[in-house]
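Marked as duplicate of an earlier ticket. Keeping the data here for the record.
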Amino acid sequence: MSWIARLFGRTTPAAPAPTLPGRRESGETPRADFADFTPDLGAFLGHSAYVQLEVFEGLARAVLAAPTVADKEALSRAAARALTKQQQLVELIVRAKYQPAAVMEPFAPAIDAFKATTTGNDWWELLVSSYVTAGILDDFFIGLAAGLPAPYAAEVAEILSVPGANDVLRDIVAGGIEREPQLAHRLALWARRLVGDTLLVARSALAGEKDFDHVEPVFTELIAGHSRRLDALGLTA
């Protein structure tokens, strides 16, 4: 059985919500050490920079589709934050003597395919996609940065820890649900469907041992953070 099926407690990629692995006795599972799985500097920076570019592109599409000027203005600010993160990562790439396009290119096909499957069917699903995927992947790359050489570890964590689009997206989606309560169920289901694909992107960034028993704590922490973000929307993870 694949690691993702074991994580979600199912053997087929159906739509049911992903669940946390069963709790273990206290002290049995150590805190996840992301640094054990950090790839080399060039691969890390290229992957994380292209992910931020995808986040920006998704938010830019949301700006174009926004129904009001207020939504367009708020989302444009959120998109600018994502682009700033991406540009700051590119600056680190250049400083580390890599070519930005060269280190991002290997990750483009998979991220582009991910983007195509997680865009959603309407503007609301597009917003939730940005909220869910950016939240999980920012958490993931912040944790994974711990294994980078100094001073890159601290600098990457600082860049990705700057609040991104989540507050803007949370306010817009929460406002929509307040006005149209029927949105809640549909968007909760959509958010659950996004998690598996997003964790596959995260898993593809890991270096070294990828056996489920070794990486399980890493993904358990990511899902816990995702659950907290959905709680902030009043949705159930």
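See parent ticket for discussion. DSSP finds ten helices and no strands in the chain.
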